[in-house]
Write a structure and sequence with these properties.
heterodimer, A: mainly alpha, rod-shaped, B: alpha/beta, TIM Barrel, 3-stranded antiparallel sheet, 23% strand
């Protein structure tokens, strides 16, 4: 065990920083996901369109 | 019941099985009903100078609140806004802005008009039409910046609340429209005639691509059609092409090509001919009778205005446009 002069385990600080780094990365990932993938998907404005008709006997495929 | 629907908005008339999406990317068959995906969700919304549209004869020197959504029913290889026009609505960064909010924002920015622009306003038809109606009630004018690729019935309905249009007449051959844009010229010419009949003030933009649509003979033919069908007072803008989208290998339009197009249009008898995307060149408006400069511009800025109630301040000749 590597100790500081005050007797504290020197690795303890790094462990805390490591957890902090992982937590920050996860938070950034969630934020990125929400603002890019999730957010854009929820940002469409669905409304029944005008100027269309039902096709009883479909022949032609869409382009 | 097959659940298949046919969109009647544009001449492509896509037949869509449930779950299928139209060629414009913005209309989907959702459980046997056709829905738009972009109502009240623009991916661009900001105030612009009206000269940027370009509209040079429409409330010059004022600001116009401009909106666009993702999608387009044409697929021009040279599209200058392809990053939104050739994108699915769910892949764009959209904001929530129903028609009421557009009108509020336009007033908040002291705009006198609203533009439906950047991509293709006829693709976000319902949003455009409802916003136009509200804007008109609020005393704002409406401008569509469009390729004019739409069926007759929806266009006439829209024209009831549209004051001005800048129509992109891309070339004057069917081959060009078919090969470069996935559309057809006849529909665009019909739309121009309809807008004229419905009293919409029209300006034309022609994006000149070197080696593709810069043949002076075809430009002359196009200008003659404009003169005969829309009138010699219809402003036309020959815009410079910058390499974009699938035409990155092409060089920007040389200034000389644009000058040739301008000269051909003037020889044909069109009164108001402009060169676009080249700041400082052919941006001024001249009186067709006395030849004096009635509106001077530098870029999008109006530097002098010599019109009284839409008439030349020097000789009193009426100048075509929407001036108040």
């Amino acid at each position: 065990m590597i100790k500081r002069r005050n007797g504290e385990d020197i690795r303890r600080g790094w462990t805390r920083r490591g957890f902090g780094l992982v937590a920050a990365t996860a938070a950034a990932g969630v934020t990125f996901f929400k603002t890019s993938v999730y957010r854009s998907g929820s940002d469409i404005g669905v409304k029944i369109a005008d100027h269309w008709e039902e096709v009883k006997d479909p022949k032609r495929k869409s382009k | 019941m097959s659940g298949v629907v046919r969109c009647k908005l544009c001449p492509k008339e896509c037949e869509l099985a449930p779950g299928q999406r139209g060629d414009c990317r913005a209309r989907v068959n959702l459980d046997g009903k056709l829905v738009t995906l972009v109502y009240g969700k623009p991916c661009a919304a900001r105030p612009d100078p009206v000269e940027k549209k370009p509209m040079f004869h429409f409330l010059p020197g004022t600001r116009i609140f401009s909106i666009a959504t993702a999608g387009c029913n044409l697929h021009c290889k040279f599209c200058q806004n392809w990053d939104i026009s050739q994108k699915n609505p769910e892949d764009a960064r959209n904001i929530d802005m129903p028609p009421q909010k557009v009108v509020q924002a336009a007033r908040g920015y002291s705009c006198l008009s609203v533009a439906y622009t950047y991509s293709e306003p006829l693709t976000f038809y319902e949003y455009t039409r409802d916003t136009c109606v509200l804007a008109k009630k609020a005393g704002l004018k409406n401008v569509i910046v469009t390729a004019g690729y739409i069926n007759e019935e929806p266009l006439r309905e829209l024209c009831e609340s549209v004051d001005g249009a800048n129509v992109d007449l891309k070339a004057f051959t069917e081959e060009y429209y078919r090969d470069m844009c996935d559309g057809d010229l006849a529909t665009v010419l019909r739309s121009l005639r309809i807008m004229r009949e419905e009293g919409v003030f029209i300006e034309i933009t022609n994006l000149v691509l070197p080696g593709h649509n810069d043949d002076p003979t075809l430009i002359k033919e196009m200008c003659e059609w404009i003169k005969d069908n829309l009138g010699a007072r219809t402003p036309i803008h020959f815009s410079r092409f910058h390499p974009q989208y699938r035409m990155m290998h092409l060089y920007p339009t040389p200034a000389k090509t644009l000058q040739t197009a301008r000269d051909v249009a003037k020889e044909t008898g069109l009164h108001h001919v402009y060169v676009g995307n080249v700041p400082g060149v052919d941006e001024d408006t001249y009186c067709p009778r006395c030849g004096k400069t009635v509106i001077s511009r530098i870029g999008y800025r109006v530097t002098s205005y010599k019109l009284d109630d839409g008439r030349c301040s020097y000789c009193g000749t009426p100048i075509a446009g929407v001036w108040k």
